[in-house]
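Quick one: structure for this chain?
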Amino acid sequence: MVYIRAKKVKSDQYLYLVKSVWDSKKKTSKQKIIKYLGKASLVVKDDVPIEFRNDAKILSVLASYNPQDIQKREDATKKSRHQLLKKLTDGNIDGSIKIYKEYVNIFSISDFFDKILRPVMTKIGSDWETGKLSVATEHVASNVAQTLVKIIMDQVSSVKNKKKILLCVPLGEEHHIGCDVLETYLTIKGFKVFNMGTSVPSDVLIEFIDMEKPDIVLISITINDNILAGQRLVKKIKEQSKIPVLVGGYALQGDNIPKFEGNVIGDTRLDEIPKILRNSTLLN
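Got it. Here's what it folds into:
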């Protein structure tokens, strides 16, 4: 059984999606956390994993936390997604910046990346793959999105952290918007980020790792055809060093996730990634 558990910290409630698991040794059930959802007053339907998103009991619990505000936030999010999709495909950077600024005046930067930019870019990629969007329009949208991310990067400040993160893509991967988004967000969170989003030979990447000695490597894979190249890249990195490797991206958000020698972070919320990077036990 899957349900929502609330935990009170000081005056605020925080929600977790949990399930009951039977412990055969202790002959009792225990709770296993499926996903941390966030502060109760800010959690919306889209924060729930898709397979549980239409569960009536879960929706009822969410609605109990200030339902009018929840509906208002969901409506604002849907509207912003629709507007940003049009601005990106039209090549309108000024309009895209305006949507970003209006959204973060109410919500957080991580919410913009998670709930607006990422779903919009996923739809653009999906429409391109199915032929609903031309190659030219997809390139225009991706270029505007990358420009938007760079502008956001220039506007934010951060508190520095000791960990160094290398972002990269496998050979042949031309889409690096995921790396650009991560670079911006992780820099805000204080990490030192090396963004090698451009596809380069693995030998060049290994040489860079030897020179800069990052603490963790994150590999982003957008296109399914590049999964095999990603697996080879992870294997080569692991053969040359003991550095932890995390793999994620649009290509790894389905149900049948291929195996890698590194850890896969599939459909992971953006604000959960810094926690993973700081928690060495999750990288083993």
